[in-house]
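Hi all, a correction to my earlier message: I attached the wrong file for Multiple sugar transport system substrate-binding protein. Here's the right sequence:
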Amino acid sequence: MQILRRPLLASALASAFAGALALAFSASAAAQQTVNFWYHVDNAENTKLMDELVKSFETKNPDIRIKAENVPWNNYFDKLFISIAGGKAPDVAVTRLALQPQLLEMDAIEPITKRLAAWPGKADLANNLLDINKASDGEYYYMPLQYVAIYLYYRTDLFAKYNLKPPATCEDFLEAAKKLTLPATANGGTELYGFGMRGGKGGHDNWGPFVLSQTGFAPGAMNTPKAVAANSWYIDLLRKHKVAPPSAPNDGFNEIISAFKAGRTAMIFHHIGSAKSMADALGDKVSAVPVPSCGGGRWTYFGDESTTMFKTSKVKEASWKWMSFLSESDNNLKFNEATGQLTVTKSGALKVPQPARFVKATMDSLAFAKPLPLVPQTADFVSSVWPTTMQRALNGEISSAQMMDAIDKHFNAK
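and the right structure:
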């Protein structure tokens, strides 16, 4: 009998040990929190960078697992809003400032004001970013992740050739545009226009520095004499002064970029997202400065992406750790490596791969950079109202006053 007891004892001990291991593993798994994170990227390189960031975070925070899901851009926000309506939102997602009012109306997002105040990395965020992101109720819901600000690209070779300085005001801009509009016979066989005007979709951020610097979207503001005159001034760049190509009413991003690189235009508006391709194509023949001031005011378009936390999250502290990790200097720099947008930190801005002159133009623009109105009407303004009315105005089908009246009614119809 004693001979039989030893195997039984060994078996019992083995079972007990296995049970203890299972309990320990179960306890460990239970202790680990999972953060569901949604984002979007447009190439495989960005996905690889995100995987590297997840691995780095999980190594430093072994009790947290990041489940990062790359959602295709073409249905990213549709999927996000459907998930919110169904009570199945992720814990954290990348979103845009323009959507903040809608998310607040849905009572979907968690304020991070107190967490942000205690975060050591706050002082490293670029100036004015938090002020731009602040909600109408005074709370912060968005952690800055990347941003752009529209600035003025100019051909340094052409400006030097005609002894011009980059424009600081609307008046300077028009003077330079006139001098840089030349027939092919006077410009080595290439017809030159001073300004690559973007009259097609997306051109509202080229129009804004000249018009929104002098008005706003409040009821009646768009059709005041001053606002109508500012819009007329912009339209006249093509119709009266002819400093933009005849194709301007229909020109979009590809058209203005191609003409600028080819030396057919001397000035365009865009942001740091195109800086690398500009530098690759033109080298030191291109530089950038903030948009000119007009009528005593200054305005430029602020484009952003941030992370936000959803109220339904059951792992809010872990979610905050992940959000703040993505916005820390070197981590944020890595996130923005392949996107071409600008890191949100001062320390990271010193290390970005884009030439310093483009980084400086972006950061110098933050003091007067603003988003379009954070209201539901903005989406249709961008996609249809502005391009349709601007194209008609540039073609002489409607007046400046009629265009501005249409914009005012779009935003303020009762």
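Sorry for the mix-up. The chain is about 45% helix and 10% strand.
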